[in-house]
Write a structure and sequence with these properties.
6-stranded antiparallel β-sheet, Beta-Lactamase, alpha/beta, Rossmann fold, Hypothetical protein af1432, binds fe (ii) ion, 3 domains
Length: about 500
């Protein structure tokens, strides 16, 4: 038997006991899934569980007794999850609602979150994730308000724990940059939240079953000898996909206390985070384990999202950019046109006070908004004379084609909208929809101004470039006719 196996080992329970059991309503028309959730949450012993087979049944239950949490499927007969979410918000806005679905479209996720859902889970999900999320959101939902004076100390501790939890979440969510920066942040946070003496993050290579140091940190000055790597324990964490807390007075790598937790991506262990020795007390508590586990889980989710998002998003954008580049090779526009329109649009959007996310969407859309021109034959693309009716129809169609090309992409909603509406006009005489005034989305109105300006100031097969002043004059002449006057003013101010 290996040495560390003789040590006292304690795997702490994740959920804390609460004085009042929180009540949870589980809504799903598919009995096996519903039963699975009911069973898992009932077994934890911390919650009172009710269940319903559709929105109507759930609402009747909810009206008779508002719940702390509702976990609801989206697509159900009679009344679906989104309608139920709306109704719940009306009755008790503080109820935490987690939406569950097998086919999450991004639009739906965003709508659900906007309507007040606290989270979204994709079927099939792991029971671990379900328990973690339920625990997390019920913690954040606070106490019931029924506790008496005697409970004040207990409540104070709970509050501190809650604020530490939200601190962890905020810190992880707000960490910009790549994976390496997140790894650094995880280790810093781990040391901070449990007042640990040293912390390591090892990446795990499944193919060779080996560990590689990624971040090593010690709060009292870095010394590599301070950093424990306990291969047996780490392997145990990988095998169990669960945390370990070990206490020992004799093992120098552990003494007096060591926490090891897995970092997971898509159900696989991708690394192990390990913190050793509490600086003042030496020995870690169950709460310490709980916080490190929360940190690891949150960081894992964040990394997973980042990895998936970044790789998918970067690949897709590159594909669209090459499509646009292939059009530009046939057209006389250059890549600089896209870059200029993109850079100028960003300035105008910032001047108009658009939120950072919208500015970023516009930056991307400005580079790919003419992707629909791929459907133009050379006879149209390079024509210098007047276009026939049919040719004009094909030209105008590039907005719809562009939107269609982007439509399967979940993450580009705003970009799709901008692509669709960038040829609409303030007076309603644009295309493809003939929207007018503020009915045209703001980002589309901004791109219309910048794109027209850049077209006017570029050489085209059928005419020479206008001067910048002449082009601005032309935009101003079309204030509140073709273009939104306020955007023309913003443009004139930043050019
Ligand atoms: Fe266009």
């Amino acid at each position: 038997m290996r040495d560390w196996e003789n040590l006292f080992m304690d795997v702490a329970a994740l959920a804390e006991n609460s004085d009042r059991k929180k009540n949870i309503l589980i809504v799903d028309d598919y009995l096996p899934t519903r039963s699975l959730m009911v069973e898992a949450l009932s077994q934890s012993g911390n919650y009172e569980i009710s269940e319903a087979a559709d929105g109507t049944e759930a609402l009747t239950l909810f009206k008779s007794r508002p719940y702390d949490m509702v976990i609801s499927d989206i697509i159900m007969p009679v009344m679906g999850g989104m309608e139920l979410l709306d109704a719940i918000r009306e009755i008790k806005a503080s109820t935490a609602v987690i939406m569950v679905t097998a086919h999450p479209a991004l639009e739906l996720t965003v709508t659900a979150m906007k309507q007040g859902a606290v989270d979204f889970m994709k079927k099939p999900f792991s029971i671990d994730d379900l328990l973690f999320k339920v625990d997390l959101y019920l913690r954040n939902s606070g106490s019931s308000g029924n506790e008496g004076e005697d409970e004040s100390r207990h409540l104070k501790i709970k509050e501190e724990q809650l604020s530490l939890q939200s601190y962890i979440y905020d810190a992880i969510e707000n960490t910009p940059g790549d994976q390496e920066e997140i790894f650094q942040k995880i280790v810093e946070l781990a040391l901070k939240i449990v007042d640990g003496e040293s912390c390591v993050l090892f990446l795990y290579d499944k193919t060779t079953d080996s560990f590689h140091p990624q971040v090593l940190k010690s709060s009292n000055g870095f010394r590599e000898s301070n950093i424990p790597f306990v291969a047996g324990l780490f392997k145990e964490v990988v095998a169990r996909k669960d945390a370990l807390m070990v206490h020992s007075s004799s093992d120098p790598l552990i003494a007096p206390s060591l926490i090891c937790v897995p970092l997971m991506i898509r159900g696989n262990v991708m690394g192990v985070l390990s913190v050793r020795r509490k600086r003042n007390l030496g020995v870690f508590t169950k709460n310490d384990l709980h916080h490190i586990l929360s940190l690891a889980k949150r960081a894992s989710l964040n990394l997973e999202n980042k990895v998936l998002y970044e790789s998918t998003y970067a690949n897709l954008l590159n594909t669209f950019k090459s499509l646009v580049a292939s059009i530009q090779m046939r057209d006389h526009y250059t890549e600089e046109h896209c870059q200029r329109v993109s850079a100028l649009s960003v300035k105008v959007a910032a001047r108009c006070g658009c939120p950072a996310m919208d500015v970023e969407s516009l930056r991307i859309a400005a580079m790919i908004h003419d992707v629909g021109k791929i459907a133009w034959p050379d006879s149209i693309l390079l024509k210098s004379g007047r276009l026939s009716e049919e040719e004009l129809r094909i030209v105008k169609n590039h907005t719809l084609v562009g939107e269609k090309i982007l439509s399967p992409v979940l993450l580009l909603d705003k970009e799709k909208e901008i692509t669709l509406y960038h040829h609409e006009r303030w007076d309603g005489k644009g295309y493809p929809c003939g929207l007018s005034g503020r009915a045209v989305p703001l980002l589309g109105r901004i791109l219309a101004v910048v794109d027209s300006f850049d077209a006017m100031t570029s050489d085209r097969p059928y005419r020479q470039a206008m001067s910048v002043d002449a082009a601005i004059e032309e935009l101003k002449k079309n204030r509140n006719i073709q273009f939104d006057g306020e955007i023309v003013d913003a443009f004139a101010a930043v050019i």
